[in-house]
Amino acid sequence: MELHITGDPAADKLLGDNAFALLTGMLLDQQVTMESAFAGPEKIMTRMGSMDPAAIAEYDPAGFVEIFKERPAVHRFPGSMASRVQALAETILRDWNGDTTAIWTQDDPDGQEVLRRLKGLPGFGEQKAKIFLALLGKQCGLQSEGWREAAGYYGQEGAFLSVADIVDPESLGKVRASKQAAKAAAKAAKASGPS
What we know:
Elements: H1 9-17, H2 19-28, H3 34-48, H4 53-58, H5 61-69, H6 78-96, H7 102-105, H8 111-119, H9 126-139, H10 147-150, H11 169-192
């Protein structure tokens, strides 16, 4: 699987090769650019030598925060995000026997079940789970029945709404434009307020 999310070939290769790295990138995708969030796993891998859920779950928490703080930082909120990544790793170990892909493959789940499982992960609310489901379906070969419906408008073909739609610099530009338009609309709606 070849992904083109970060603009950094090494970071993108890790995302394509390692399901936990991809899931971690999605977790980190808040209050930073998409490219920065999804480049985070490669920084962790380089500094720690592993993106294995067991290695991350067992790593000294204070030391893990230091990995996040090292420049360039993994995330602008190193303490809270390091803790979330370790909680995610612990969940993968406990609930999925350390196999991230089991979330979307074990017992041949349909799209709604994959969505339910994703929403059960630490740091994954409705929107983040739907975006990740769309990413699995659009770029990672997920065949679960009904995944597009479960992903909502993120699952639509040619939507350019999220990381699920980024395959090259042009599509990145389209996703950025739609995100900016959505932010502007939300800001305008908030400014007009209730009448």
